[in-house]
Specification:
- The structure is a homodimer.
- In chain A, helix 3 packs across helix 4 and helix 6 runs parallel beside helix 7.
- The model of chain A has no long low-confidence stretch (mean pLDDT 92).
- Chain A contains 7 helices and 13 strands.
- The longest helix of chain A has 13 residues.
- Chain A folds into 2 domains: 111 residues, Cobalt-precorrin-4 Transmethylase, domain 1, CATH 3.40.1010.10; 127 residues, Tetrapyrrole methylase, C-terminal domain (Methyltransferase, Cobalt-precorrin-4 Transmethylase, Domain 2), CATH 3.30.950.10.
- Chain A is an alpha/beta fold.
- Chain A has a 5-stranded parallel beta sheet with strand order 3-2-4-1-5, with helices on both faces.
- Chains A and B meet through helix 1, helix 4, strand 5, helix 5 and strand 6 of A and helix 1, helix 4, strand 5, helix 5 and strand 6 of B.
């Protein structure tokens, strides 16, 4: 380890559009000597940095984290770029896990995290304010956690009438689980509960639709999709586009969850 | 209603610092003919807009929303400014509630929501990545919802081992409820569970501390505070400043929640 140790900033550029990337992130990207990240995210930063670009595959988060920390240990000023918010199901935990496992190796490296707009916020803003009341954010990926933990959390969140945002809802390797997950939620929600489906939110290919628990089709969903499932109080407006749904700030005084 | 109806954009400037305000929000604020909002938030926009400023009290959200919509109905290009993310316990739901209650009055008005960094993200980034795994966001304010709904949600979130972010944790009008809320959580968490306390996050007066469930003192908390309570897997690092805590992406295979 060098005595002239540098810095690693784990930054989030938001969900794709540069107009959602904060000035703090942009300034750090512009000043960095090195940009480390999954190829498509590095592409987003390329036009506004003179740093060296280190593109990696999306599956090698631990390697990428160690590479960034090693670069910083030689005095480099490194930005690790993530889409969305790096602190929400993204690179920040992956990098800090390495610090935690091998703390002494990078003790002199300064590490910071810069927040970004996460996909659930971006999707919510496209249709109104479905996250306007208490909500949960759950990743359906069972690569790093057991499926029964996921279904237990879904059941708890649904029974307590949280709005639920789902990340990583479906992949080629687990095509059937999303239907099971929605069935868990449906035990506690009416069939007409709004389900907001956002694909490629913030990108040119963006597709946002509002369906309901009854008409939702899991096969339309892939890893580029984020879902928001309304609570019992989430309402639809009679408007053709833009602001069409929201969860009111107030909650009925009896506090009862309407049964399906 | 005018046939030349305008637009209302409900925007979030993030938690105080201009370097967290997205270009999308800044561009809308700069182009607006009118800026409507709680005084301190309007102050944040004042330097980069030539629009007319309409400052209001923080307690009159419905009046402010109707005022903005009425201005837009006369053809004005109105920005309603909120701190944080307007879609998360903020102005977006308040405004859409008015649209929902009096839809025909503003049918020609174009309404949009632009997301911002919310306080929990900002606080999380200051200390690492405590929101790196499934989490809930709960407002403890019982102005608009019954307290028993809040405690039911806390119990559900704690039992299912979510990380929990708490907004509006304590006010002068309800000084005792935070201790009750933490007691609900403590029934499902170990005493050494990290509690991250952020006051005025993103502002000059920012204070961020990490305590635990045992040492947490509710009397240090006010309405300018946001709290993040770790899950059973949230870990502390032996580092003096900056990145000091995170919730790993992986979850133990037995899925058991360690009992207090």
């Amino acid at each position: 380890m060098s005595s002239t140790a540098g810095r690693v900033s784990v930054v989030g550029v938001g969900p794709g559009r540069s107009h959602w990337c904060t000035p703090a992130v942009r300034d750090r990207g512009a000043a960095a000597t090195d940009i480390v990240g999954y190829g498509p995210y590095v592409d987003l930063v390329e036009t506004w940095t003179s740093g060296r670009l280190h593109r990696s595959d999306n599956r090698v988060e631990a390697d990428r984290a160690r590479h960034a920390l090693d670069l910083a240990a030689t005095g480099r000023d490194v930005v690790v770029v993530s889409s969305g918010d790096p602190g929400i199901f993204a690179m920040a935990s992956a990098l800090i896990e390495q610090l935690d496992a091998h703390g002494d190796r990078w003790r002199q490296v300064d590490v910071e995290v810069l927040p970004g707009i996460t996909a659930a916020q971006a999707l919510a803003s496209r249709v109104g304010a479905p996250l306007g009341h208490d909500f949960c954010v759950i990743s359906l990926s069972d690569v790093l956690k057991p499926w029964h933990v996921i279904t237990r959390r879904l059941a708890a969140a649904a029974a307590a009438d949280f709005v639920i945002a789902l990340y990583n809802p479906r992949s080629r390797h687990r095509p059937e689980q999303l239907a099971d997950a929605m069935a868990v939620v449906a035990r506690h929600r009416r069939p007409e509960t709004p389900v907001i489906v956002g694909r490629h939110v913030g990108r040119d290919a963006e597709q946002v639709t509002i369906v309901d628990l009854r008409t939702f089709d899991p096969t339309t969903v892939d890893m580029s999709t984020v879902l928001i499932i309304g609570s019992s109080t989430t309402r639809l407006l009679d408007r053709p586009l833009g602001v069409r749904t929201y969860t009111p700030r107030s909650y009925p005084d009896d506090g009862a969850v309407p049964k399906p």
